[in-house]
């Protein structure tokens, strides 16, 4: 099963729009990917779900992670890296079973020029530690406000070409 992780809990985030866009594209290719939205993390996550604690709220997310063999991580650039809340989520998940020998597709997003190149590199290091296999084709969507149309969908010809290629490669990966 494929699960798309929207890598921030910021309300109104562009990351969730891109995660939903990817979900639609996978559905259009006959798959049924799940969406894991970090906005739905337990409010008290750092107390309720770290270092051996487990809440019933997080247990549902953990089950989704357990049932997933391929993850798409949509990751915004926050202060030149990936969001701390994404690392906290990873830290809260059971180790090592949650991600071990599973596959990952990485999509970086930013309002600035670089599409989270550095944050994707940083996150790739975490993936390597977890024994997660990241697909070589990683995308960087810069200047994200100008990438989305009024329906919160990607529309630029070259962006559609590269996202479609990434999605098709990840299905085959
Ligand atoms: C805490 C924080 C730090 C950010 N740091 C950067 C940054 O280093 N570079 C950049 O281009 N954009 C930065 N942004 C802007 C985000 O890239 C932008 O909001 C984009 O839409 C993706 O994040 P979002 O999913 O929260 O909307 C930052 C945003 C926040 C909330």
| Backbone shape | globular
- Tell me, what is the CATH class? Alpha Beta
Low-confidence stretches: none
* Assembly of the depicted chains: single chain
Distance between the termini: 13 Å
Rg? 15 Å
Residue fraction in strands:
15-25%
Query: What's the story with the biggest beta sheet?
Result: 6 strands, parallel
What molecules are bound to this protein? flavin mononucleotide
- N-to-C SSE string, H for helix and E for strand: EHEHHEHEHEEH
The helix-and-strand class reads alpha/beta
Description:
There is one protein chain. The protein has a single domain, classed as Flavodoxin domain (Rossmann fold), CATH 3.40.50.360. Helices cover 39% and strands 16% of the residues. The chain is built from six helices and six strands, in the order βαβααβαβαββα. Strands 1, 2, 3, 4, 5 and 6 form a six-stranded parallel sheet that branches. Helix 1 (14-28) links the parallel strand 1 (2-6) and strand 2 (34-37). The model has no long low-confidence stretch (mean pLDDT 98). Residues 8, 10, 13-15, 76-80, 109-112, 144 line the site of flavin mononucleotide (FMN).
SSE blueprint and pairings:
Blueprint: E1 2-6, H1 14-28, E2 34-37, H2 45-48, H3 56-66, E3 70-76, H4 84-92, E4 103-109, H5 117-129, E5 133-134, E6 139-141, H6 157-172
Parallel strand pairs: 1-2, 1-3, 3-4, 4-5, 4-6
The structure holds flavin mononucleotide.
Concise description?
The protein has 173 residues and is an alpha/beta fold. It contains six helices and six strands. Flavin mononucleotide is lined by residues 8, 10, 13-15, 76-80, 109-112, 144.
